[in-house]
Give the backbone structure.
Amino acid sequence: MELRGKRAVVTGSNSGIGLGVAEELARAGADLVLNSFTNREEDHELAKSMADRFGVAVSYVQADLSKGDEARALIEKAGGCDILVNNAGIQHVAPIEEFPVDQWNRIIAINLSSAFHTIAVALPGMRAKGWGRIVNIASAHGLTASPYKSAYVSAKHGVVGLTKTVGLETAGQNITCNAVCPGYVLTPLVEAQIPDQMKVHKMDRETVIREVLLDRQPSKQFATTEQIGGTVVWLCSDYAAQVTGTTISVDGGWTAL
């Protein structure tokens, strides 16, 4: 699955799923533009390190994806892209009657609207080249729901709908648009929750993982960032040229229930 000569923009890619996706794209030969809302020395060092490890061009562009103009500027600063992975996302949990309006607006902006903005700017360049791949990182919550996650579930369902629409608008143009729907993935953010959950539930690590975090994931195993990244690479390959406007679940059977 050779992607050498392709430029990929991955939003929210200085850690977690986004970083795992970026590394697998780099492993396949794609040049990379990393992104997050921070602009620290370590962000730029990460880009340099990845370039050295994989022998591809890697840069870092700061953008606050809660702002539509910055999401659009990200693609422009990147010089366009052949591959766009919309990964940036945040979460907040609360009953709907107590859900802070500012949190609702921020989650919708980052998790959903930013994908609209980046796609709108990236597509003309893809059409001009006659090739493009758009992969939106949705969630199992783009296909099902959980209580107290109204904004996140709404945004991820919206991402799935956006994916279908763009897939139809680009059909027959050698451009595809798909959504990857992960269940629980073992990221530093999830790892940091485990000790607190052990205390709250008075359980050991393995029991917390199996009965609390992975309660709805029938495999009782986390997906890995490498698996998510590998799925994205496959979607960008010629093997998936006729896969468009759809979702691929990487959730250990969660959405099969």
Q: What stands out?
A: Residues 186-222 form one domain. The chain has two domains: 7-184+223-256, 186-222. Residues 6 and 203 are 47 Å apart (CA to CA). Strands lie at 7-10, 31-36, 58-62, 83-86, 132-137, 175-182, 247-250.
